[in-house]
C-alpha cells in the first residue's frame, strides 16, 4: 500500500463520519479489591497513601494510582466519547507472578473483580486473564475457571518477575492456548531495563518498548511459532521497535545462521503473522504498520487510562484508509480473533 500524504489525509478525514462500534483490545483498570489487598501487604508489591495520593511500590519502582484509574464509570465515559462499543478489559501490573505463594489467590481475586465488572456491563466489557505462572498446576486450573467465566484471552507479561515469557517453564501455556484457540496478548511488565532507563523517567517511554521488542524477538528465535503454528498471538504498541529492525534479525538468523534453532521461516515472516495493536500515537508509525503487517493483522487499542482513545483514533483516521481496511482494524479483526460474534 502506498503511503498517503498525511496533511492531505487529515483534510479528507474531517469530512468522514465519526467511527462507532469500535473494539478496544488493550485497556486496563486498577481493581479496587486488588489495590485494597496490596494496601495490607508489608512486602512488595504494596500500596500506600501519602498526602492524598496513592502509590504503588515495587522495589525502587514507584508509580501513582490516581482515583480515575480505578473507575469503571470513567472508562465507560471515555468509551462512549470515542465510540468504543466493547473493551477487552485487563488488570495492570503487577501480575500474580510478583506475589510468590500468594499468586494463585491474587489471580483469583483479579479475575473475580474483572468478572464482576463484566457482569454489571455485559454489553461493554469482555475479560482477559492473567495467570499465576510461577505455579503451572494452579495456572492451568485458573485458566479453566476463566474459560467458564467467559474470559476471551490471556494477557501474558513480557517477563514474569524477571523470567522471559518464552522460557521452558511457560511453554505449556502456548500449547494450551493453541489447543483452545484462545489469543495470547503480550504486555510489558516491570521492565528488565529499568535501571538503564529510569534516569530521565523513560521507564514507560523506552523500557516498555524494549520489553515488547525483546520478548517478541525471543519468541520468534526460540522456535515456539514452528511448534505452535496455529497460535494466536498479539504484540502491543505496534510491536515495539521490532518491525523497524526485523530486517537485521532476518540477516542475522537466516543469512549468517546466528541461531541455535533451525527455524522454518525468516523472522519477518513470523512477525507478519502476529497481530499488532495500534497503541502508538503517531500516524507515520501506523502507516508503516499497515504496509508491513496489512490491515488484517492490526487491532485498534487505546491503552486507556494512560492514553485517551482519541490519541489513537485521530492519527489512525488521518491515514484515510479504505473503509473496509479501517473497519477491519477498528472492529472486525477483533470480533474474529476473540470470537465475539456479530
Description:
With 342 residues, the chain is of the alpha/beta class. It is 44% helix and 16% strand. The strands form 3 sheets. The chain has an 8-stranded parallel beta sheet with strand order 1-5-6-7-10-11-12-13. The radius of gyration is 20 Å and the shape is globular. The model is unreliable at 1-14 (pLDDT under 50).
Give the gist of this structure:
By secondary structure, the chain is of the alpha/beta class. The chain contains 14 helices and 13 strands.
So what's the oligomer here?
A: single chain
Helix and strand content put the structural class at alpha/beta
Order of helices and strands: HEHEEEHEHEHEEEHEHHHEHHEHEHH
CATH class: Alpha Beta
Radius of gyration: 20 Å
Report strand %. Answer: 15-25%
> Which strand order does the major sheet show?
1-5-6-7-10-11-12-13
The major β-sheet equals:
8 strands, parallel
The CATH topology turns out to be TIM Barrel
* Mean pLDDT reading: 94
What is the helix content? 40-55%
Name given to the CATH homologous superfamily: Metal-dependent hydrolases
How many distinct helices?
14
End-to-end CA span: 28 Å
- The CATH architecture classification is Alpha-Beta Barrel
**Uncertain residue segments:** 1-14
Extended strand count: 13
The figure for the number of domains is 1
Shape: globular
Amino acid at each position: 500500500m502506498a503511503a498517503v500524504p498525511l496533511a492531505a489525509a487529515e483534510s479528507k478525514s474531517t469530512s468522514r463520519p465519526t467511527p462507532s462500534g469500535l473494539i478496544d483490545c488493550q485497556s486496563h483498570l486498577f481493581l479496587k479489591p486488588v489495590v485494597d489487598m496490596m494496601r495490607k501487604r508489608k512486602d512488595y508489591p504494596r500500596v500506600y497513601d501519602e498526602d492524598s495520593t496513592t502509590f504503588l511500590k515495587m522495589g525502587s519502582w514507584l508509580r501513582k494510582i490516581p482515583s480515575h484509574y480505578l473507575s469503571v464509570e470513567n472508562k465507560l465515559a471515555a468509551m462512549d466519547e470515542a465510540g468504543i462499543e466493547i473493551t477487552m478489559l485487563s488488570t495492570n501490573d503487577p501480575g500474580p507472578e510478583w506475589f510468590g505463594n500468594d499468586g494463585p489467590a491474587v489471580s483469583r481475586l483479579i479475575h473475580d473483580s474483572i468478572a464482576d465488572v463484566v457482569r454489571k456491563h455485559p454489553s461493554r466489557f469482555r475479560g482477559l486473564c492473567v495467570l499465576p505462572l510461577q505455579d503451572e498446576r494452579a495456572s492451568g486450573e485458573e485458566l479453566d475457571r476463566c474459560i467458564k467465566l467467559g474470559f476471551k484471552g490471556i494477557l501474558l507479561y513480557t517477563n514474569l518477575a524477571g523470567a522471559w515469557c518464552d522460557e521452558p517453564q511457560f511453554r505449556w501455556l502456548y500449547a494450551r492456548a493453541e489447543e483452545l484457540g484462545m489469543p495470547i496478548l503480550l504486555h510489558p511488565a516491570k521492565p528488565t531495563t529499568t535501571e538503564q532507563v529510569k534516569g530521565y523517567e523513560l521507564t514507560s517511554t523506552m523500557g516498555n518498548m524494549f520489553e515488547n521488542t525483546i520478548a517478541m524477538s525471543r519468541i520468534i528465535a526460540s522456535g515456539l511459532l514452528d511448534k505452535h503454528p496455529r497460535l494466536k498471538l498479539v504484540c502491543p504498541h505496534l510491536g515495539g521497535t521490532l518491525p523497524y529492525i526485523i530486517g537485521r534479525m532476518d540477516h542475522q538468523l537466516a543469512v549468517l545462521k546466528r541461531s541455535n534453532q533451525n527455524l522454518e521461516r525468516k523472522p519477518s515472516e513470523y512477525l507478519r503473522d502476529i497481530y499488532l495493536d495500534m497503541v502508538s500515537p503517531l500516524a507515520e508509525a501506523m502507516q508503516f504498520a499497515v504496509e508491513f503487517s496489512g490491515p488484517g493483522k492490526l487491532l485498534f487499542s487505546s491503552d486507556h487510562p494512560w492514553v485517551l482513545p482519541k490519541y489513537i483514533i485521530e492519527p489512525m483516521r488521518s491515514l484515510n484508509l479504505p473503509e473496509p481496511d479501517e473497519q477491519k482494524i477498528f472492529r472486525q479483526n477483533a470480533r474474529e480473533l476473540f470470537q465475539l460474534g456479530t
